[in-house]
Amino acid sequence: MKAHQIILKSRPEGMPTSDNFDLTPVKLPSLQDNEVLVKNLWMSVDPYMRGRMIDRKSYIAPFQIGEALEGGAIGEIIESKNSALPVGTKVSHMLGWRSHFVSSAEGLTALPVTPIDDSHFLGVMGMPGMTAWVGLNRIAKLKEGETLFVSAASGAVGSIVCQLGKMMGAKVVGSVGSDEKAETLTALGVDAVINYKTCGDLNQALADAAPEGIDVYFENVGGEHLFAALNNMKDYGRIAVCGMIAQYNDTTPTPGPSNLAQIIMKKLRVEGFIVFDHWAHYGDFAKEMSQYLAAGKIKAEQTVFEGLEKAPEAFIGLFEGKNKGKMVVKLS
Ligand SMILES: NC(=O)c1ccc[n+]([C@@H]2O[C@H](COP(=O)([O-])OP(=O)(O)OC[C@H]3O[C@@H](n4cnc5c(N)ncnc54)[C@H](OP(=O)(O)O)[C@@H]3O)[C@@H](O)[C@H]2O)c1
């Protein structure tokens, strides 16, 4: 059997390019007792993987040059010497970026039997959906009647934040990088959508979209978006700092927004979070989200690239705004 993996060939400087990755064949060992052979069906590409390409200390270890990349994936067991994981079992795990692998079964979680598509366990039912839920419920504690501003609003996390925000009774303002994305969000019931690439002054566009001021900012982007949000926050507003994708490819440290003093003057609460610290609540989230999906209350869009060899292109596409909803790769 031909197995392949994608390795980190070199560390990106600035925007990653296809030259930073290499598709290489891999020879798999034969199965020992209790081991299984997994064939990957879907893999996730996520912005946080860019941080792991930098050789630095962080909440998660850096990728090593010459070694296969890792990330969320869904696979199927095609050979098994483990009675708890028979052939045909679908599993989620963190060994994406490869076609097959042999596993001791550690780190494999069998997917629940549900009508939900397998790939959604990388998106709305997985880490990005959980991030949206944690940020709104556990960090910002969004309340009915409040105004919520969401950046990268049509992405994997942002699109779920917007829809949960509407269900929680908020007025939702989103920011996106294209008119097509704006139309999709408007169709989902988002109250106002700003195209940050064409609006001119983002600060003013936000003031026009939310003249009453913002209670909660769900921060996915950083830079200009944070500047505009700080200027438009209400007193005692809350900022859930989820990500700052605009800065992930910076080659020199980005100067902070010049208006951080707004945090003092408006008595804001700014709290960063990493979804994995909240994983003990996954069961509560999954129960709620699966009900919303079954009832058609949440729409989970995906952008799909096909073939393991397309994974670098899909990953780079995250920084070029090529996805609506969750970016995933379908392995052939
Ligand atoms: N804290 C956590 O535990 C956690 C967990 C998951 C994700 N995150 C963070 O959440 C954010 C969203 O992640 P995601 O997985 O949902 O990705 P995503 O939104 O599905 O994809 C990235 C999107 O970001 C936008 N973008 C890219 N570069 C940009 C720039 N320079 N300025 C403004 N927008 C830009 C693009 O949309 P446009 O076309 O609209 O520009 C792109 O489609 C990221 O910052 C990520 O790191 C954090």
Structure, explained:
The protein folds into two domains: 2-123 and 300-330, Quinone Oxidoreductase, Chain A, domain 1; 127-276, 3-Layer(aba) Sandwich (Rossmann fold), CATH 3.40.50. It is an alpha/beta fold. Strands 3, 4, 5, 6, 7, 14 and 15 form a seven-stranded mixed beta sheet that branches. The protein has a six-stranded parallel beta sheet with strand order 10-9-8-11-12-13, sandwiched between helices. The two termini are 14 Å apart. It has nine helices and 15 strands. The protein binds NADP nicotinamide-adenine-dinucleotide phosphate. NADP nicotinamide-adenine-dinucleotide phosphate (NAP) is lined by residues 46-48, 128, 131, 152, 154-158, 176-178, 181, 220-221, 242-246, 273-275, 318-319, 321, 323, 327.
N-C termini distance: 14 Å
Note the overall shape.
globular
Any idea what the CATH superfamily of the largest domain is called?
A: Medium-chain alcohol dehydrogenases, catalytic domain
Order of helices and strands: EEEHEEEEHEHEHEHEHEHEHEHE
Q: What are the salient characteristics of this protein?
A:
6-stranded parallel sheet, Quinone Oxidoreductase, Chain A, domain 1, 332 residues, binds NADP nicotinamide-adenine-dinucleotide phosphate, alpha/beta, 7-stranded mixed sheet, 24% helix, Rossmann fold
List the helices and strands and how they pair.
Layout: E1 3-8, E2 21-26, E3 36-44, H1 48-52, E4 73-80, E5 90-93, E6 100-103, E7 109-110, H2 127-140, E8 147-150, H3 156-167, E9 171-176, H4 179-187, E10 192-195, H5 202-209, E11 214-219, H6 224-232, E12 233-241, H7 262-265, E13 269-272, H8 282-294, E14 302-306, H9 311-317, E15 326-330
Parallel strand pairs: 8-9, 8-11, 9-10, 11-12, 12-13, 14-15
Antiparallel strand pairs: 1-2, 3-4, 3-6, 3-15, 4-5, 5-7
Helix pairs in contact: 2-3, 2-8, 5-6
The structure holds NADP nicotinamide-adenine-dinucleotide phosphate.
